[in-house]
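Have a think about this chain, C-alpha cells included, and walk me through the fold.
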Amino acid sequence: MNGRIIRALIEKDIKVFFSNQFFALITGLALVAYAGIYFAMPSKVDETVEMAVFAPALPPILADSLSDEGVILKNFESEGALETAVTDNEYAVGVVIPESLNQALASGEQGQIDLYFSPDFPEELKEAYVIFFEEIGYNLSGQTLNIEVHEEILGVDRAGNQIPQREKMLPLFAVLILTMETLGLASLISSEIEAGTLQALLITPMRMEGLFVAKGTVGVGLAFIQSIVLMAVTGGLNQQPLLIIVALLLGSVMVTGLGFLIASVATDLMSVMSWGVPIILLLTLPAFSLLLPGITTDWVQAVPSYYLIDTVYSAATLDLGWADVGANLLPLAAFSLLFMGLGIWVLRRKFQ
C-alpha cells in the first residue's frame, strides 16, 4: 500500500464530505443540538411531590408522616381555594383534613379525609393515593397490624439519588452521532461508485486494500471524533474515560462497516436515507430501554448497539469499570469486525 496515495485520498474524502452542504450542516448542527438538549434538561431528579392541603387543625404526626414520604404540603386558606387550584391543574392532588379528625381519632371513631384529583390525573394512580391515606389514618388511630413486613431492595438503592433523564439520553445521543456519519460515508462512497471515481482510482497504483483503508479511516475517524467531542463536552468522560473511548472506537468501526454495506446497495442520497434510517432506528432501540424500562426484553441484546449503549451508560453514569461491563467489549468487537468484513467483501464484489 502506498502511504502517500492513501493520505491524499483521505484528505480528498474529508474535503468532499464537508463540501456536501447537507451532511456538513447536520454534522455540526447535530453535535450542537444534542449538547444543547443535554444541558437544557434538568441535572437532578425531583423526588418530592407537592400536594395542596386545607387543614384548619393539621395533626403534627400526619404532617411528619407525609414529609417522610417526600410529600410537600402547600396550605390553602379555604376548601374552595384548594378545589380551584386542583381544578386548574396547579396541583395534581388536594386533601382536605377537617378539624374533627383529631377528635374522631382520639375517641376511636371513624374520621374522614377528602381527596381531590385534577382532571388529568391518571385513573390508575387514584386508588394508590386512597390506600396511602387510609394507611396513614390507620396508623394515626394507634392500631397496628399483627404482621411483620421484611423489606429488601434488589439491586442498587437509588432513593434520593435518582439518575436524571439527560444522563440516560447521553448514550442515545452518542449512537445517533455515530449513525449519522454512517449515512455520510455511505453517500460519499455510493456517489463515487455511480460516477466511476472509485473504478478509476483502481487503475492507478492505488490497490483495493489501500482504498478500504482510506475509506475506513475517514468513516471511523469522523464518527469517533464527533462522539468523543460530545461525550467530553457533556462530561461523559469524567468517569471511566478509557473504557468509554474503547467502546466508542469499536462502535465507530461497526457503523463504518454498516456504511460500506449501505453504499453497496444505494445509488444516491435518497436511497442512502431509505436504507440508513431503518438501521438507525434499530440501533437506537436499546437506548429506549433506559428511558422507558420495561418496553423491551432480553431480545434487545441481539441488537449490536446494545453492547455499546450499555457500556457507555454503565461507565459514564454508574461509574462501572472494566470488571463490571468490560465483557461487553467482546461482542461489540465481534459485531464490529463482522460488519466491517462483510461491508468490505460486498463492496469488493461490486467493484469486480
